[in-house]
Design a protein that fits this description.
171 residues; alpha/beta; 5-stranded parallel sheet; 6 helices; 5 strands; 47% helix; globular
């Protein structure tokens, strides 16, 4: 497959990758896959197989993407569930736990997912690499119902953010 590019960009896609100890080995396998796709990859941790807490890594990657330092992200933990929950707490993040090629295609094409989440204990290295390749090659189907729905998600995030700020001021 060719190098992943966004619509108006000519530079390589900037990708932040992170994993807890459960996804550490798979992360090492996927970084060369991302490099081969032409991505500029930043490894945001963990940097050893020693036990660590997935919320810290998930938040670090999600915040870096939401803040514009990276275009997309890849997160890994044992199941993919916990770290996806964490990432989706960050406004602007649409993290999708993908278990197969259908999930990979649909999360990009219909949901404009900006973080791919994989469960290291549920996927072989080969299947994970196929999912990564498919996810990065699949464009968002902008316009129409999919774009309208992604905009609705963003509006909900803004509404919740304003509501939480208002609640905080009244405490």
């Amino acid at each position: 497959m060719g190098r992943p590019r966004t619509a108006a960009r000519t530079r390589a896609l900037r990708v932040a990758i992170g994993a807890d100890h459960g996804g550490f080995a798979l992360k090492a396998t996927l970084i060369p896959v991302l490099n081969a796709l032409g991505c500029e990859v930043a490894d945001l941790g963990t940097h050893s197989p020693a036990p660590c807490d997935y919320p810290a890594v998930g938040f670090k990657v999600a915040q870096a993407i939401a803040g514009g330092r990276y275009d997309r992200g890849v997160l890994l933990c044992k199941s993919g569930v916990g770290i996806a929950i964490v990432a989706n707490k960050v406004p602007g993040i649409r993290a999708a736990a993908c278990h197969d090629l259908f999930d990979a295609r649909r999360s990009r094409a219909h949901n404009d997912a900006n973080v791919l989440v994989l469960g290291a204990e549920t996927l072989s290295d080969r299947k994970a690499a196929q999912i990564v390749t498919t996810w990065f090659a699949t464009p968002f189907e902008s316009g129409g119902r999919h774009e309208r729905r992604v905009k609705q998600i963003a509006a909900i995030e803004r509404k919740l953010s304003r509501h939480q700020t208002s609640d905080f001021r009244h405490q």
